[in-house]
């Protein structure tokens, strides 16, 4: 059986890059999962502390991210959705891994940022994850997580082929092949769409309403190479390629198209036509998410009680899975 794990920082409502690069895959993997597969999706609030700020804001952001994950269709009965900080084994394992991790990959900034990748490795290894669905910007961190497995096993002389299974598994990165694993900014298509970009119209949030989505896509920066779609060319026409990738991200369920295939189909289409098609697809593709976001975000006592219940279920499940691994880790290194 698969163990699927991924995480997202509670730093604001997810944007289209988060959605097409990661969250939509989470939902698709949840729906396609075999009953014996396990799924864990963490709101990584300890990682978010590397941007220190304001306690109330973090509290709000955590709840808002939970709302977002429910809105994209994660089912708390099927997937363990939990705050990283509620499962203290994540921090415990981070320390243990940091004692055998090599510093080469970590670059010296604030200490929290320095150890950021080790905490991420701990997140993944703690739950014996086999599959980690992420956008392409996370590939290097996952490579590092695999290196942590090797270093841990060899430092503590844990054989990888004996009657006893090794302590950690090597997780596999699951990233979309096409460039949708990296959605670019609408106002500067040479940069990735990013939560920290201050330019509002550079990104579409999963909670944006139809008018806002249409306006942002209409104002997306393209180019004056040609008034038509033409060849797919992410180097010379990054803005056009990005719209094609967004359109591709929302293309039909089973037979998902690539940006390149869509360029072929839409060769004679005007850029304005491409923008309209893309806006239509995004509006339609996010309609249900937007509606659920509103419902799960309702400020009523009844909804707040429901959200607390969902938080409890996720925490309980994640703690159980975490403790199973930690018992073996403590035993293997002489702490138990
Ligand atoms: P975060 O919170 O920055 O982003 C969440 C997910 O969104 C993807 N993503 C994108 N995909 C395509 N195009 C974009 N423009 C774009 N921007 C973001 C990210 O690749 C990610 O999958 N370090 C992680 C959180 C983390 C984690 C983990 C992930 C902590 N522990 C363990 C996986 C497993 C992060 O900061 O993601």
TrEMBL record:
It comes from the Eukaryota. GO terms for molecular function: ATP binding; tryptophan-tRNA ligase activity. Pfam families: tRNA-synt_1b. Keywords: Aminoacyl-tRNA synthetase, ATP-binding, Ligase, Nucleotide-binding, Protein biosynthesis. Gene3D superfamilies: HUPs, Tyrosyl-Transfer RNA Synthetase. It is found in: Mitochondrion. This is tryptophan--tRNA ligase.
